[in-house]
Amino acid sequence: MYKKNFAALERHLPHVAERLNTISSTPLEKINVDDDWDVMLHGKPFYGTGAKAYCHGQVMSYWKRQDGRIFSKPPDQENLDDVTTNFLFSVLQRANNTGITFFADRTDLRSYHMIVLGVGLAEHLPILSGLTECRGLIVIEPDPALLAASMHTFDWSAFINKFKSKSGFRFEMALLDHPDEIYSFIYELINFHPNPTFMDGLCIFQHYQSDILASAADRLVSNPQTLIAGFGFLYDNLNLVQNNYFNLRDCRPRVFNTGPNLRRLSAFVIGAGPSIDNDLDFISTHADHVMVITCGSSISIMLENGITPDVHVELENVPEALDILSAVAKKHDLSAVRLMGSTTIHPGIPSLFGEIFFYFRSGIPTYHQFRIGNQTEIRDAGPSVANVGVALAGELGCDQVCLFGVDLGAHDPKDHHAADTAYMQGEMEFEWFRDYLKSHANFGGEIFTNEFYLRAQERMSRVANRFNNKQIFYNCSNGLNIPGFTPVLASNLPILPLTKENKFNTVEKAFSDFQPYQPQAFADAWEEPERQAANTALRDHLMRLIREHDQGYNKVIEGLMRLSEEVAFCKTSMETHIYRGSLIHAIMAAYFFLSRTGNNEDRNTFSKIVSEELVIFIRSISNSVSELYTALKDPSSANI
Q1: pLDDT of residue 485 exceeding 50
Q2: pTM across the whole model
Q3: What is the pLDDT of residue 433?
């Protein structure tokens, strides 16, 4: 049994097999209990009864209580774009006209995603997967000895093959013993799963008492929305394509390219959080000896205090970013400041700066179509502009990365930015993203934050974990605690001694390695007839899938799953990523109401309505894409 199971792990989950190979402790003693199995752990039986009997009773109790589930909130128009709102309005109006009744709670107890914390002897896994009919199963075990013991009694080979052999099904397992690592693993799998759409009804099951697993479960339950990143919407995605088009056509920038260099250079990553006001003197004192990276609106704070950044980073494609920078450029000379921006920033921004550098953002429509090479992305450069600064400092090999004003929250929600920013000067409006939450502050206590900032925190932790073997990450901000960053007051920061000249030369060398973007690369990437054909083909394919799955409730839900998989994150065509955000939100909204219809007649009637409205919805997306492509047809004459 063990050899067969281990071969299955080597084939499907090699990282788990490798960990099992490194176990040096004595294998757990297996004991028989009434034609069942148990193991001795810490001198006593792990279950006390047999594994099968214990797991059956535990799972049945869990299923009866239904207390380990995450349910989505009803779709909110404020969080949907116009095209998705129109779809939902039409669907619900027709449902109302037909007399369909929706229930407050789900009437469909199936769960697309299932998270199991704790393997034990694994006898609970088949029962859980059968009850939930899950398609995405994630299993975490902190103790390799328990997994190794289960390899002698549980048929892992057959269980894994049951998932791996079915299209659209996925099984993942990891041996992890830290709550943050567990959360990161699950976040990565669900957020970038081929089908992240069906979060509503997600099940979390903790198999045995463990502080590690309980902490991970608490984080998952308290902020489940952070498991799904913002997918963008149709008109935002069209704007990304348009901005990318004009920036690459007109700017002649240099392009970021990652490299393995480690540099003796400290980087100060500057955010616009309120705590930056406390560290301005410290930053000013050391600015000549470190690389100062301003992020978004923080550039005005530095310039107002006589500090010229070495590089300024931008992420967003919104016109408000241009408004802020244009106001700054009227008061300060930006010609000495390098711009490192996404290719999708507003086309009016680059001309405000001296040297222009672009990077390609993954996960957006233009990435696979326009990027040059595989190393021109700054990984984890989002969702906030501060993430760009952190990730850039890591990629440039700075051996110290120090955060200032990267608060990702506020001790007082009314004081959400630094005093010298447009937000606090009344020039720009700021709204918290949905409701604010409380989380751990960097120097102890709690801080107000929100879902968006928690996603930013997660990405920053990933950067620190990726580079922490050679680079040190400090957080001097009096804001949100960021795992992987050492909290330290600015006055206690161990600054590396570097002369002004050495600092200048090191920074100059880092950016001189980036090569110019060639006009031919743009010409190779943009062929309007090809893009129009791709748009038409995707539209027809998605509409065909809908029509093939419009026969009743279960068939329509199967079709929704197929639709979501067709615009998965891993897809490489520009068109799938343009469609993706709005289509995913439309499917999520439809699934929310589908799973709350109360009888078969209503289910079938409403399923038909959803299918018909999705065809109209997809056709409208296709028409909008076609209109943009027509406007950009001729690069020699196209205008913003």
Answers
A1: yes
A2: 0.88
A3: 47
Please state at what angle helix 553-566 crosses helix 528-548, rounded to 10 degrees: 160
CB-based contact 236:578 (threshold 8 Å): no
Span of 109-113, 394-398, 411-415, 478-482 with lowest mean pLDDT: 411-415
Q: What is the mean pLDDT of residues 358-384?
A: 93
Residues 6 or more apart whose CB falls under 8 angstroms from that of 61 comprise: none
Strands of 94-147, DSSP E:
113-117, 136-141
Its sign, for the CA torsion 367, 318, 348, 578, is positive
Contact partners, residue 598, CB within 8 Å, separation at least 6: 101, 102, 103, 107
* 3-state SS, residue 358: strand
Structure tokens of 207?
């198999």
Distance between CA atoms of residues 438 and 451, nearest Å: 10
Angstrom distance (rounded) from CA 600 to CA 615: 23
For residue 620, give the nearest of 577, 566, 569, 583 by alpha carbon. Answer: 583
pLDDT digits (tens, 9 = 90+) for 425-443: 555 566 654 566 788 999 9
Instruction: Identify which of 172, 72, 234 has the alpha carbon closest to the alpha carbon of residue 576.
Output: 234
How buried is residue 475: exposed, middle or buried, by Cβ count under 10 Å (0-12/13-18/19+)? buried
Cα–Cα distance for residue pair 391/382, rounded to 1 Å: 9
Cα distances from 535 to residues 144, 162, 564, in angstroms, run: 48, 36, 17
Q: Edge to edge, what strands does the sheet with 30-32 contain?
A: 30-32, 37-41, 44-45
Interatomic CA distance for residues 317 and 269, integer angstroms:
21
Decide: 117 and 208 in contact? Cβ < 8 Å.
Answer: no
Closest by CA position to 269, among listed 415, 381, 355: 381
Integer Cα distance of 52 and 126 in angstroms: 11
Sign of CA dihedral 404, 326, 234, 371: negative
Bridge partners of 70, per DSSP, are 202
Let me know: does 20 contact 144? Beta carbons within 8 Å: yes
- Chain centroid to Cα 114, Å, comes to 19
CA distance 348 to 251: 10
- CA–CA separation, 37 and 122 (whole Å): 11
